[in-house]
């Protein structure tokens, strides 16, 4: 077992035996020390005094581990955002972050952490937060795929997590050109795109998909544009549905399910 698992072993075993919830966060770090770890623990406890969390740094692997007691995935993800900001502000983050929760993400808490440690070793984008879910991985071969094209990081992250939890494979792109490239790579079952995008807007994306794809995917426009001319143009360009912001994620998923099924 790794020192991270050893450090958390007793607590993880307790969670498994009693089916208690707990969140797990792993982050690749640099220039870390015990003193910095203690300071970080103190600072985050002040920011979230009602949250009980344990912090361990594995110097041999350069990985920070955080166990958040009694937290589900959504709450653990929020805590991960705080950890990310804290590390970035102090130039301590050395790569991506991985977040999960037991029992939502895996059958056993200890297995979840071991698999997360294996995954976090892979190179990642600095500051990127990935959701670990072994159950989703097992379903991915049969799951429908969605390409989400949006330059709003908050909306993208929220929808990615939400749709993954519903069992979909989710690919993301931050601008129009990236969206077209990702589309050509994965040929998703459905595309969710904004109209206001850098480099290439939503209309141009729909035109590219319509002209280049052998079998065009279903397209859902998700935008703050409410003018009738935008709605009409989107449907004329090949959109299957049009949703305006602010939106209900439940309604969005229901429409996605209807289009894919």
Automatic annotation (TrEMBL):
Molecular function in Gene Ontology: phosphorelay response regulator activity; transcription cis-regulatory region binding
PROSITE patterns associated with the record: RESPONSE_REGULATORY
A Pfam family of this chain: Response_reg
4-aspartylphosphate modifications at: 194
GO-annotated biological processes: regulation of DNA-templated transcription
Protein name: Response regulator
CDD domains named in the record: REC_OmpR (cd17574)
One cellular-component annotation, GO: cytosol
InterPro entries from the UniProt entry: CheY-like_superfamily, Sig_transdc_resp-reg_receiver, WalR-like
UniProt superkingdom: Bacteria
Ranges of residues in domain Response regulatory: 145-260
Keywords noted in UniProt: DNA-binding, Phosphoprotein, Transcription, Transcription regulation, Two-component regulatory system
